[in-house]
Amino acid sequence: MSLTDLEAEASVPPASEVPGGRKIEGRSPWQLAWARLRQDKAAMISLVVIILLVAMALLAPLIAKWAGYEPDFGDRKFGVTDDGLPVGPNGHHYLGTDRLGRDILVRAVYGARVSLLVGLLSTALAVILGVIIGATAGYYGGAVDTILARFMDVTLSFPYLLFAIALAAAFGASTPLTIFVITFFSFASIGRIVRGQVLQIKEREFIEAARSLGAGNVRIMFIDVIPNLIAPVTVLGSMTIPTAIIFESTLSFLGAGTDPRTPSWGNMLADATESYTVAWWTLFIPALFLLITTLAFNILGDAVRDALDPRSERLFAAQKANRKKRK
Amino acid sequence: MFRFLIRRILFGVLVLWIVTLGVFILFFATSKDPAARFAGKSATPATLALVRHRLGLDDPLPVQYWHFVARLLRGDLGYSFATQSPVTTMIKGALPASLSLILGAAVLWLAAGIVAGVISATRARTLLDRGITLTVLVGISMPAFIVGLTLSYVLAVKLQIFPQTGFIPIQDNPVQWFQHLILPWITLALLQSAIYTRLTRGSLLDVLGEDYIRTARAKGLPERRVIYRHGLRSALTPVVTQAGVDIGVLIGGTLVTETVFGLQGIGQMTVQSLTNGDLPVIMGVVLIAAFFVVLGNLAVDIAYSFLDPRVRLS
To answer: What is the DSSP letter of B165?
Structure first.
């Protein structure tokens, strides 16, 4: 019998078994979670909104063609008033222009590309880094744990915007630097929770079983520990995306994020500080895009957490409501 | 107790040392000519030579680092090349605006967060709790600068109830000081109170599950007394200590609010220095901010060890 077979027999099947590979009788935890998630109307609306946003970002050039303006094109003819002020929403520019006569709709659509790219990529990197460092700290314990846990605590306690500015001052603001900064200041909160989970998991019997069968540390970590982290990490990841998007827009707003010429929501809002007193649309339209995006991700993230946790409060409330109805 | 304190202080010193090392590497060791960075874009060769001499840039890196730390210990953060004044003087000048903002906002967010958190926890899983939870979610989804700009547009630009920007020192005119700070306070407090609502709710729910709460109820105390005298008192310990840490972190961390409302505090000074490429100021603010973070954490650790004997033993 191979080691894997023995481990499979010895260990409780992890909560993360993805269906498809082998036939499963009954429903897997993931199917159950999806069934719960599907009943959550707010979450489903958020999911549709997110899919639309992604589609909008991917189709940005087509939307620009339809609107008739390039994102960087300053329209001197229809885009600014005779006094050089931005024009409001009208037949030429559906959502108005900024102070350089650039089309707000087209720029906002292109801005979705930057926000989503930075948000998703830095979240992915933060999750990977957080899981590796958190799992290492929790699994090995002792001095390794002290150093890594302390390191994460220190990272979490620092004013990250200030450090982002210091980095931007030293290296010049750019999109890759923005992604690096967001990753660096996001991984610790993931890592800390992962560490806590691993501390619990490593005391369980199936880890002892794997060890007594001769499995090494690395094997136990990747085969037995990390698969059990997939549920909490999914939740953490979905909660990190909106934070990362806000982070990017804030950095760009302060001039420490993406290149100021890039059409990103943060840059548009930074630009709007010059014009919002006379042209509300320069402020509220990119703000609305940003708000809808982060709210959709936040609501979905909350719902995913509830769906993955069978003891969730929402379920509790639903059961209570049902009981009342029956009475 | 004593050993615990010594350990915490040593750890704080260690963190500060790591920060100075990081800052030194970032600003001195990663550049071919740090003098050019510290003298500004429009510096003459004579200024460059002076800066190079003053910073001792011809020495080997370890020696440079030693001098760097020595200057810091003397309280010398260098000179801004935009204003030609010492960075320490600039920070001292900007501190009143930042402190006014942070302390006022802290009062607001603690009040709002604790009240909302208590309501949310004592009426857990009711419609009111759901409403508060949703508001918190919206609060967390909103970047501070959008809140600030929206408030500024509606209440300052359109309705003209409050002044749009600027800071008036309290000793000059307390009424105007207050008027100029209301919108910044609300802006800063809104996001924070969302976080504190969550914190209070979670903490109080935990405490209300404890045995001694059951005992209090069993001996017939009115529910009000159980929640406020027995429950809230211990539930607030993590909330108040978190406030200590946050106030430390916010010194140098209120860049957005200060920029939106032109408060001329440390945050806005930093953002302007980024635009001007004024590195000595940014470096100075980072070091000062790190100092306050460590100080805030230390204060909280000490307070905690007095309040909760279990901490000392761990």
So the answer is: S
Q: Give pLDDT < 50 ranges for chain A.
A: 1, 15-16, 312-316, 325-327
Q: Contact at 8 Å (CB) between B143 and A246?
A: yes
Q: Based on the structure, what is the number of domains in chain A?
A: 1
Q: What angle do CA B235, B114, B215 make, to 5 degrees?
A: 35
Do B17 and B39 contact (CB within 8 A), yes or no? no
Of A165, A172, A66, A63, nearest to A111 (Cα)?
A63
The tokens for A34 are: 């999806």
How does pLDDT run across B131-186, given as a tens digit for each residue? 888 888 777 778 888 888 888 888 888 888 888 888 888 888 888 888 889 999 99
Of B15, B153, B283, the CB nearest to A280: B153
SS3 category, B56? coil
Chain B segment 20-59 residues within 8 A of A by beta carbon are 23, 26-27, 30-31, 37
Residue A305 placed within a domain: yes
Tell whether the model's pLDDT for residue B44 goes beyond 80.
Answer: no
Q: Which two tokens stand for residue B75?
A: 């309280």
Is A308 part of a structural domain of the chain? yes
Percentage of residues of chain B with pLDDT beyond 90 = 10
Residue recorded with tokens 């006094």 = A83
- 8 Å CB contact of B285 and A162: yes
Q: Can you say whether residue A102 is alpha, beta or left, with left for phi > 0 and alpha for psi between -120 and 50 degrees?
A: beta
CATH code: domain of residue A132: 1.10.3720.10
Kindly report the backbone phi and psi dihedral angles of residue A321, in degrees, each rounded to the nearest multiple of 5, phi listed first.
-60, -40
State how far residue B221 is from chain A, nearest Cα, in angstroms: 27
Q: Inter-axis angle of helices A160-171 and B279-307, to 10 degrees?
A: 160
Which residue in A162, A280, A302 is closest to B253 by CB distance?
Answer: A162
> Would you say residue A21 lies in a domain?
no
* Collapsed DSSP state (helix, strand, coil) of residue B79: strand
Return the SS3 of A97.
strand
Q: Residue A166: list chain B partners with CB under 8 A.
A: 23, 26, 282-283, 286
Length in residues, chain B:
314
C-alpha–C-alpha distance, residues A8 and B148, integer Å: 55
Q: What is the ipTM of this complex?
A: 0.80
Amino acid (one-letter) located at A58:
L
pTM for the complete prediction?
0.81
For residue A219, CA distances in Å to A207, A210, A213, A226 come to: 11, 9, 12, 10
CA distance B252 to chain A (A): 7
The whole domain housing A169 covers 111-315
With CA atoms as reference, the chain B residue closest to A163 would be: B286
Cα-Cα-Cα-Cα torsion A113, A116, A122, A125, nearest 10 degrees, comes to -100
Query: Distance (Å, rounded) from C-alpha B67 to C-alpha A250?
Result: 36
Using an 8 Å CB-CB cutoff, list chain B residues near A188: none
Give the residue numbers in A contacting B (CB under 8 Å), as ranges: 150, 154, 157-159, 161-163, 165-171, 242, 246, 249-250, 253-256, 269, 272-273, 276-277, 280, 283-284, 287, 290-291, 294-295, 298-299, 302, 313, 316-317, 320
Q: Which of B98, B162, B188, B255 would best serve as a mutation to test chain A binding (most A beta carbons within 10 A)?
A: B255
Asked if the structure places residue A30 within a domain, the reply is no
